[in-house]
Design brief:
3 helices; single chain; about 65% helix
């Protein structure tokens, strides 16, 4: 019987060489992956630091801009509040001028407005002086025409009196109900 010792040694030697190569590949691969992850992490750290500095500068610039404009904004808000308050007051005010203009639209050309009373809530009492009955007819026509208009300020108009004075002029008292 012959035993070939050389061959077994050769097989063991090759096996050991193969294990050494695998160990080298795993070792250098692990070292390479570790180096890549260190480079990646370092790059991210540098990038995030740079980006953080940029954002800090941007925030500082915006803060300075806000601080510079905050006085203007405070003044703007104060003026806006004053204007809103004035608008509210104007909205609550009684519009005397509009109602007087509406009354003047009813008058004939020769008629004169001799008295206006805003004393009653929702009603305006008007005293009108006219020269003749033709002007009175014109006044009545203007009233009828106004009542048919949707934009007319008064919902109803009633005549409380018609009197003739010593000079021959007529005095008409009207009660105008506000819409």
């Amino acid at each position: 019987m012959k035993i070939n010792i050389v061959r077994q040694d050769t097989l063991k030697f090759r096996r050991v060489q193969r294990i050494k190569r695998i160990n080298l590949i795993v070792t250098f691969g692990s070292i390479g992956l570790f180096a890549l992850s260190v480079l990646w992490t370092s790059g991210q750290f540098v990038y995030l630091g740079y980006r953080g500095n940029q954002l800090t500068k941007t925030v500082k610039t915006l803060n300075d801009l806000y601080t510079a404009r905050s006085k203007d904004e405070a003044e703007y808000l104060a003026v806006k509040q004053i204007i809103d308050t004035v608008d509210q007051i104007q909205g609550k005010r009684f519009k005397y001028r509009d109602f007087l203009n509406g009354i003047y639209q009813l008058l004939p050309s020769n008629a004169k407005l001799s008295g206006v009373d805003f004393g009653q809530s929702g009603v305006i009492i008007v005293n009108i002086r006219i020269i003749n009955l033709t002007d009175y007819d014109t006044l009545l026509a203007n009233i009828n025409q106004g009542l048919t208009n949707n934009n007319f300020l008064f919902s109803a108009i009633a005549q409380s009196s018609l009197q003739r004075d010593k000079t021959g002029q007529y005095s008409v008292n009207l009660e105008l109900k506000i819409k």
